[in-house]
């Protein structure tokens, strides 16, 4: 069984017992979180599609940890203008574990 869930402005395909990284969620590690914007749920027999979301469907997850991603370097240059700038960015994320998908 899998589901398509909208979280953090992105749509993700999730399955039970899966661990994934999503944009930062304000919850302590070990606490449960719930996603109710479920767009699709599918199992072996049938597929349920929401228009735009499925009523009553939800995905329960647990926060595993928080962290920062790899550094992304942003370099800008304009030739012959003596202009160069270098900036770095590390996106913060939350690692969650999908516990249960209910329809």
Quick summary of this structure?
The chain is mainly β. The protein is built from no helices and ten strands.
Produce the secondary structure layout.
Elements: E1 2-7, E2 10-15, E3 19-23, E4 32-35, E5 38-42, E6 47-49, E7 58-68, E8 72-78, E9 83-89, E10 92-102
Antiparallel strand pairs: 1-2, 1-5, 3-10, 4-7, 5-6, 7-10, 8-9
C-alpha geometry:
elongated
Mean pLDDT: 95
User: What is the radius of gyration computed over CA atoms, rounded to a whole number of angstroms?
Assistant: 19 Å
Unreliable sequence segments = none
Distance between the termini: 11 Å
The fraction of residues assigned to DSSP E strands is: over 45%
- The assembly state of the depicted protein chains is single chain
Element-by-element helix/strand order: EEEEEEEEEE
